[in-house]
Amino acid sequence: MNIGLVYNVRHVKPDINNPQYVKEAEFDEPKTIAGMVKALESLGHRVYKVEANENAYLKLKKLSKKIDLVLNTSEGMYGADRESQIPAMLEMLQIPYTGPRPLGYSLGLNKSVAKEILSFYKIPTPKWMTVNQIFDLEKKPFKYFPAIAKPIGEGSSKGIKAENLVNNYSQLKKIVEKLLREFKQSVIIEEYLPGREFTVGILGEKVLPIIEVMFDKLPKNVPKFDHYEAKWVYDNPQAKYDALECPAKLTPQLKNKIANLALKSFQALGMADWARIDIRLNKKGEPSFIEVNCPPGIIPDPKENSRFPRSARVMGLDYASMIEEILKSACRRYKITYKSTRKKTEAEKELQKQKIQFEKQFKK
Ligand SMILES: Nc1ncnc2c1ncn2[C@@H]1O[C@H](COP(=O)(O)OP(=O)(O)O)[C@@H](O)[C@H]1O
Ligand SMILES: [Mg+2]
After folding, report:
1. Ligand 1 first shell, C-beta below 6 A
2. Pocket test for ligand 1, best of 112, 150, 283 (most atoms within 8 A of CB)
3. How does pLDDT run across 112-140, given as a tens digit for each residue?
4. What is the Cα–Cα distance from 41 to 338, expressed in whole angstroms?
């Protein structure tokens, strides 16, 4: 098939002290894009690369007759609804693409509106309030402590440091003021959930093996949640420490609860084909929705510990097969026939068997 790969790429070398790098934190490394191209080609597809910048629309317009389907991994460059810009262009050009419609991406990027929708469906999510200006907090002080404050529409733990976890109103006010100033967007305050943390990939209509994000290996004085330092400083190949456990050790009941929560949130927020959902346990041990990520990061090199591919591997899907599942899912929705020239190897057939067994087990 002719596959358009739409992506955002980092233009600077990794350095968390470089503001440009921080700005591009959600963008992919050039080697990730190369890995996606390689995977698509190994499936027998012809790949048309389009960087999701200001020139993307005209490039896509030129290619619109040629491309069968776009694999959309773009994060968007500017504005609160940046992730929905490429999908909106693709809608306009009538090019089929992977992932949700523009609305889904916008919801995924707005932690408050996402929670409003989930509340409508009675899907558990921590108590929260949205602060557009500091006056909102002064007028109606948040009462649930410990609490955590986050920029409303960022990802990759941007703006979420250890200090964002606070125990009282005066600490909270300080951090909220700082976030409003630094990020120039609303701030969401949430009741802090003290329990275990999970992240759950959904691929097609399936729940991938649940990942637990472990904090026990973090240094003693570092708070046990996935703040910027935990995600970027401690969890990297050089640090040689694996923060993820997959499949997570869970009782069948809890496993089902978490999987159902992930799937219901996926549906309620209009996700499609793939997404990764962050979940934490509250003090009673009940799972609660934190946020949805689409597109989730997919770094090809297993050493990088990228969450979605890690979970897919545990299910028996290598990188190319994982991408193939995303494409197939989109094709089913658009009623396009999926074509691939790749023949399955014996090893892959074996993995496929395991996958079917896993699904059976899951249904029980
Ligand atoms: N209400 C909460 N209770 C406990 N921890 C939280 C809460 N909200 C966020 N966190 C922690 O902060 C991390 C980052 O928050 P998240 O909303 O997922 O932002 P991002 O989009 O940057 O990943 C989470 O993975 C979790 O560890
Ligand atoms: Mg997250």
Report:
1. 126, 148, 150, 154-158, 160, 190, 192-193, 197, 225-226, 278, 280, 290-291
2. 150
3. 999 999 999 999 999 999 999 999 999 99
4. 15
- Please say if the pLDDT value at position 352 is more than 90: no
How many CA atoms lie within 13 Å of 67's alpha carbon, on the beta-carbon side?
A: 25
How would you classify the pairing of strands 46-51 and 2-7? parallel
User: Probe ligand 1: pick from 157, 189, 190, max atoms within 8 Å of CB?
Assistant: 157
- Residue-range domain boundaries for the chain: 2-108, 127-191, 197-363
197-363: which CATH topology?
D-amino Acid Aminotransferase; Chain A, domain 1 (3.30.470)
Sheet holding 187-191, edge to edge: 128-131, 187-191, 147-151, 165-166
Name the class of domain 2-108: alpha beta
pLDDT of residue 47 exceeding 80:
yes
Which DSSP category does 34 fall into? H
Residue nearest to atom 2 of ligand 1 (CA): 192
CA distance 234 to 46: 38
Q: From CA 104, how far away is CA 112, in angstroms rounded?
A: 14
| Cβ count near 281 (within 10 Å) | 18
**Topology of the domain comprising 127-191:** Dna Ligase; domain 1 (3.30.1490)
278-319 tens-digit pLDDT: 999 999 999 999 999 999 999 999 988 899 999 999 999 999
- Quote the ligand 2 centre to 290 CA distance (angstroms): 7
